[in-house]
Amino acid sequence: MSAINFHTKEISVKIVYYGPGLCGKTTSLQTIYGSLPEGKRPQLVSLATEVDRTIFFDFLPVTAYRIRDFLVRLQLYTVPGQVFYNATRKLVLNGVDGIVFVADSQRGMKDSNLESLQNLEDNLSELGLEVGRMPLVIQFNKRDLADVFSVEEMQEIYNRLGVPAFPTIATRGDGLFEAMKSISQAVVNDLVRKGLGRQLVQPEAPASRAAQSMGDAVVRASTPPPVPGSSSGLWPAGETARLGERIDVALKAARWPDVIFAVEQLVLAQSRRWALSEGVVADDPIPQFLLMRGVAQARYRALWEAGRAVRAGQAVGRGEAMSAVVLALETVW
User: Fold this and answer.
1) Domain spanning 3-197 has what CATH number?
2) All residues at 6 or more sequence positions from 79 whose CB lies less than 8 Å from its CB, including other chains
3) FRET partner for 236 with CA separation of 20 to 30 A, picked from 2, 135, 141, 144?
4) CA-closest candidate to residue 54, choices 84, 26, 82
């Protein structure tokens, strides 16, 4: 599900690279990441298992996609290929906007490719999505190896939906950027078709009023039913409720900087608690925590920018504060 940041005028879309183990998903993303200008490379998040790993990064493409005057930021994810990490696959698929299926061209990988395609369809179905209605492209990877199916055979075996398909060699970058451009454009077209452009039109009003309206709408959509824990009923009991009360008090008093600081502390506490329970060792567990919670990185970036602005003595408004509260709610529910 795309995330709109009215503060930075960006729309973040989530593209997931899916496929069997060792088909070239991670190599595809590493090659794309390595092609980015060194001074502008974002943080690369990696969640490693014993035999596989999930990686993530996001960036603004050089050839910028736009919906109205909003830039489209791409979030690229891989899923673990091994079957016994299917729970992680489903977590990563949550909120997906487009999929790149990476098929291994070797003849001996036919069963694994087909199994992974079926697994993709099953997992999307569990999330209430249909593979035929999802922006999708296929990479026919490892075209440089011996004993591979021809492109025509690959089309017949794997591309029953007739989606765009690209012969690729992930280690060299061949075809990767054509595939990425195709899925990016398909996602943008899909969002426009679903009416996203109309949602970006703000009424004639000062920027702070527009941000306020956006914040109200998002909180109404995201607020869970009241439960015991805090006076507002938004926060679970325990340590989270204490920090939640600080957020509630700051909101009622319209102390927007205090809201930002309280949310920062809550997210940090939640991420440290998660890291301890999962045995994750990291100097900064927040990126991995947000990845596993399915929180849009653009929303955390907006919180980080708001915190930096406050510390620099700059003003923040209700829109930034409400966006921060939504992020906090997403980490606890």
Assistant:
1) 3.40.50.300
2) 16, 17, 18, 25, 54, 85, 88, 89, 92, 93
3) 2
4) 26
Taking the C-alpha atoms of residue 140 and residue 165, their distance in angstroms, rounded to an integer, is 7
Residue 274 has pLDDT above 60, yes or no: yes
Average pLDDT, the chain: 81
Q: Would you list the domain boundaries of the chain?
A: 3-197, 203-332
Radius of gyration of the chain (CA): 21
Question: Ramachandran region of residue 223, left (φ > 0), alpha (ψ -120 to 50) or beta?
Answer: beta
Residue 218 has pLDDT above 90, yes or no: no
Helix (H, G, I), strand (E, B) or coil at 44: coil
Closest CA to 98 of 173, 5, 222, 193: 193
pTM of the predicted structure, to 2 decimals: 0.66
> Diameter of the chain by CA atoms?
69
Tokens 């301890």 locate to: 276
Region of residue 235 (phi > 0: left; psi between -120 and 50: alpha; otherwise: beta): beta
Model pLDDT, residue 16: 94
Distance, in Å, from the CA atom of 93 to the CA atom of 85, rounded to the nearest integer, reads 13
Three-point CA angle 302, 98, 162, nearest 5°: 165
**Measured in Å, how far apart are the chain's first and last C-alpha atoms?**
17
Q: Which helix (H) or strand (E) holds 272?
A: helix 256-278
Nearest to 316 by CA among 200, 212, 203, 201: 212
Condensed to tens digits (0 to 9), the pLDDT of residues 81-134 reads 776 678 778 888 888 999 999 999 999 999 999 999 999 999 999 989 999 999
Which secondary structure element, helix H or strand E, spans residue 230, and what is its range? Answer: none
Q: Token pair 């045995």 is at which residue?
A: 279
3-state secondary structure of 48: strand
